[in-house]
Q: What sequence folds into this?
């Protein structure tokens, strides 16, 4: 956000999350909300990441462990299905990969520069050592 | 609404505490979060009794410390409603952290401060140490000299503080015991007139508006903090005084009682004057009148609005006077005294380079007697005649032991 | 009373629309936001929130950004509970006076604070709020250390942990005092509900939060919040460490109803040795030196004894 002068912002350093009125926040998904520029939803921490998760939907069972344990609201689940990872908000902690129960895992960490299509094409096979 | 109005006589005999409590009742406060401390306790006791008797409707939260009292007031004010409390001295000191937070968050809370000394040593009586402690906290500070003022200034406080162009908290000060526990005749307003003057609370940035969520109490670092503090200072410097004046004007029309940002008594032709606050103003007025019979043209200036400081109004009030005594009722602890400094600052760039001397008096409830003021006025006249300050610039009056004077 | 949100399973839970946002400044792998999400998503009702000064607060409301989608307030380090209690009082006042803008809502009032802000500096404020019966929930994000200021010990820091003000050194094994039993103290206020929760046991957590929201009066929730930075483990391992804490019974999950009735809510199928929990974290690394190994034994004995005590209380319904 642009650095404003002292006479250009709301008093009391008060911030509003949304532009205008919002009726039912808990019933409105992120994509349908009118976030203001003051919501961190509009910001990005992508540059924090050294490694990133790549999601391979072929193996996903939609258990939603990654959704519940993601500290950064970055696992996008809609209608009980995992859709993908919000790469503006993911900090690359890798929790989603650790809690993923499938074999092979449906989420794996790769260097930030890795190409998604290439990595999915060469996704590891089922690990036979695991039960 | 589910509460009863109270029939008041035109003149009631109230002390300052009960006068403040009655004003709070008439303003129909939504939340009072409070903690008892002498001598302000009867204000919130009074409010609690009004609640118990069905004369107000709201929440009275008896918390576990003054810090929590102001914290609760901040939460309640941010939620969106009329909020007030009262405190004194040590309790005020404990509140200090939250005072800055209330003003920084621009929450219109009214705090009745019944002025009392600060320990150590412990003392329950009136001086202005707590009032002075609050002077950089970003609050508006109004000073009552008697129970009538304590009553009236509460209405002014809500009116100004809650104005959407102001949104700054406001303290109403009165002297511990001398005002708070001294019953005098107080001209009242009926409930409807009083409430009508203050008006309904108009919410702003209220947390309880679920359709417009707000975040209060953010962190700002070096890239934003200065701008926010500058904004707050700007609004105190430019927006508050006109609103106070407008409220005083409106209140005069309603009640016939006239308040001024700086109160002047016999200042039109005064050669010498004292500048003071609280109950001392009335004592000084009485003595000044007597001094005139002795040929000393004495006047008195009372500060009604301490913050924002009435810089130009003071300079105007003092423009023709030849010698000025500032009376600070708080130990400056290593400096000349708040009033001395502020008034020196107000006058420094004006043509009138009056002779300015400072006096420290009345600590811990020590009386300021008429005799003290008589000799003070005479001392000022000596200065006028000599064309210079003949004493040291800072003197203690009314303290036992060898004379204390500095600077 | 509003309808309780129906959360039968995780798939159903995942349809929740979060009211906490990413691009906050919490460390990667921080458990705080996992806990916050589980608490907020446990209800669809409106929320009035506060945070006391600490990691959560300084990372979610740094001007000009907020990560909160519900009204939120921060005042100071010690008074987040009282801030939300003040807001709750105003809600009650305006409800009585018919001045709520949206009178049909059933807001929940939640105060978040760290262990420092709850066990130490905010202790009195929380006690006041609990005693006065405000309809609020205080949630402790218990990472057993002052993480925001760089890892100083709090009264929640356990024995043998190396904190910056009780560091392990040539002649010291670190923190000398045992963790304060905050939940017993809070339950002793006679509040309707007090519970320990852990983010790994999300179902237990949601059940407790929902129960907390359903009771009339103050609720105290103590949530274990493993701190990747101060406990010294890899950010990816947050849930693993949480599992070790609950399954070693270092952090048992239970609830106390009306200050009198204790129920254990999670019994691990395979109880893990405390040593495994300690070994997974850098803050306990020094305990594995020969001279301090007795402390690991003492740790195990303490955990066993506490578990036995909780079971006795549960069995005897006290």
A:
């Amino acid at each position: 956000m642009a650095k404003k002068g002292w006479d250009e912002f709301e008093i009391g350093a008060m911030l509003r999350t949304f532009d205008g009125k919002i009726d039912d926040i808990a019933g409105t998904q992120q994509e349908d909300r009118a976030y203001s520029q003051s919501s961190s939803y509009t910001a990005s921490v992508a540059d924090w990441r050294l490694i990133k998760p790549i999601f391979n939907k072929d193996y996903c069972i939609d258990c939603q462990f990654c959704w519940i344990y993601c500290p950064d609201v970055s696992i996008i689940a809609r209608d009980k299905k995992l859709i993908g990872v919000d790469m503006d908000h993911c900090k690359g902690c890798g929790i989603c990969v650790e809690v993923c129960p499938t074999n092979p895992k449906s989420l794996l960490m790769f260097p930030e520069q890795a190409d998604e299509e290439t990595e999915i094409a060469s996704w590891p096979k089922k690990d036979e050592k695991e039960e | 609404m589910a509460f009863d109005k109270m029939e008041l006589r035109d003149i009631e005999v109230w002390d300052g505490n009960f006068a403040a409590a009655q004003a709070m009742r008439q303003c129909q406060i939504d939340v009072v979060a409070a903690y008892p401390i002498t001598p302000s306790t009867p204000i919130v006791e009074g409010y609690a009794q009004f609640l118990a008797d069905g004369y107000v409707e709201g929440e009275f939260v008896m918390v576990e410390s003054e810090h929590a009292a102001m914290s609760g007031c901040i939460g309640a004010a941010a939620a969106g409603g009329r909020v007030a409390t009262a405190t004194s001295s040590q309790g005020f000191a404990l509140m200090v952290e939250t005072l800055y937070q209330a003003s920084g968050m621009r929450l219109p809370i009214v705090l009745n401060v019944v002025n009392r000394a600060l320990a150590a040593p412990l003392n329950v009586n009136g001086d202005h140490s707590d009032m002075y402690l609050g002077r950089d906290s970003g609050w508006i500070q109004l000073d009552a000299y008697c129970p009538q003022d304590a009553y009236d200034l509460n209405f002014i406080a809500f009116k100004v503080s809650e104005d959407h162009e102001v949104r700054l908290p406001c303290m109403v000060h009165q002297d511990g015991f001398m005002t708070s526990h001294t019953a005098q005749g107080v001209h009242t307003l009926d409930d409807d007139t009083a409430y009508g003057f203050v008006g309904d609370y108009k919410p702003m940035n209220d947390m309880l508006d679920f359709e417009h969520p707000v975040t209060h109490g953010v962190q700002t670092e070096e890239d934003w903090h200065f701008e926010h503090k500058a904004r707050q200072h700007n609004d105190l410097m430019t927006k508050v005084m006109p609103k106070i004046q407008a409220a005083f004007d409106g209140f005069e029309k309603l009640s016939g009682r006239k308040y001024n940002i700086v109160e002047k008594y016999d200042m039109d032709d005064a050669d010498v004057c004292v500048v003071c606050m609280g109950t001392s103003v009335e004592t000084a007025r009485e003595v000044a009148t007597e001094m005139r019979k002795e040929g000393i043209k004495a006047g008195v200036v009372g500060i009604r609005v301490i913050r924002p400081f009435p810089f130009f109004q003071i300079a105007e009030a003092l423009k023709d006077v030849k010698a000025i005594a500032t009376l600070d009722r708080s130990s400056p602890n290593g400096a000349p005294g708040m009033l001395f400094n502020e008034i020196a600052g107000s006058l420094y760039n004006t043509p009138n380079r009056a002779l300015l001397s400072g006096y420290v008096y009345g600590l811990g409830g020590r009386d300021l007697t008429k005799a003290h003021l008589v000799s003070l006025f005479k001392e000022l006249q000596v200065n006028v005649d000599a064309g210079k300050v003949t004493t040291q610039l800072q003197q203690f009056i009314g303290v036992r032991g060898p004379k204390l004077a500095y600077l | 009373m509003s309808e309780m949100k129906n959360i039968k399973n995780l798939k159903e839970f995942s349809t929740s629309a979060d009211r906490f946002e990413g691009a906050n400044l919490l460390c990667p792998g921080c458990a705080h936001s996992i806990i916050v999400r589980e608490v907020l998503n446990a209800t669809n009702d409106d929320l009035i929130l506060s945070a006391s000064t600490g990691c959560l607060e300084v990372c979610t409301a740094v001007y000009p950004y907020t990560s909160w989608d519900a009204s939120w307030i921060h005042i100071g380090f010690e008074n987040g509970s009282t801030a939300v209690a003040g807001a709750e009082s105003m809600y009650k006042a305006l409800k009585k006076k018919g001045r709520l803008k949206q009178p049909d809502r059933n807001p929940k009032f939640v105060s978040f604070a760290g262990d420092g802000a709850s066990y130490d500096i905010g202790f009195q404020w929380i006690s006041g709020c609990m005693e006065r019966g405000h309809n609020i929930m205080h949630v402790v994000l218990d990472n057993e250390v002052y993480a925001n200021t760089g890892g100083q010990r709090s009264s929640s820091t356990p024995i043998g942990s190396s904190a910056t003000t009780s560091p392990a050194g040539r002649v010291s094994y670190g923190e000398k005092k045992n963790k304060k039993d905050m939940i017993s103290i809070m339950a002793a206020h006679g509040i309707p509900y007090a519970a320990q929760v852990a983010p790994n046991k999300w179902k237990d957590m949601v059940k407790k939060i929902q129960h907390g929201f359903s009771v009339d009066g103050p609720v105290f929730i103590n949530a274990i919040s493993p701190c990747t930075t101060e406990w010294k483990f890899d950010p990816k391992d947050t849930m693993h460490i949480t599992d070790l804490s609950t399954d070693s019974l270092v952090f048992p999950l239970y609830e106390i109803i009306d200050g009198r009735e204790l129920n254990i809510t999670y019994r691990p199928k395979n109880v893990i040795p405390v040593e495994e929990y300690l070994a997974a974290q850098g803050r306990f690394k020094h305990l594995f030196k020969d001279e301090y190994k007795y402390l690991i034994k003492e740790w195990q004995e303490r955990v066993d004894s506490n578990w036995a005590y909780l079971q006795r209380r549960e069995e005897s319904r006290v």
Remarks:
- Chain B is about 40% helix and 20% strand.
- Chain B has a mean pLDDT of 97.
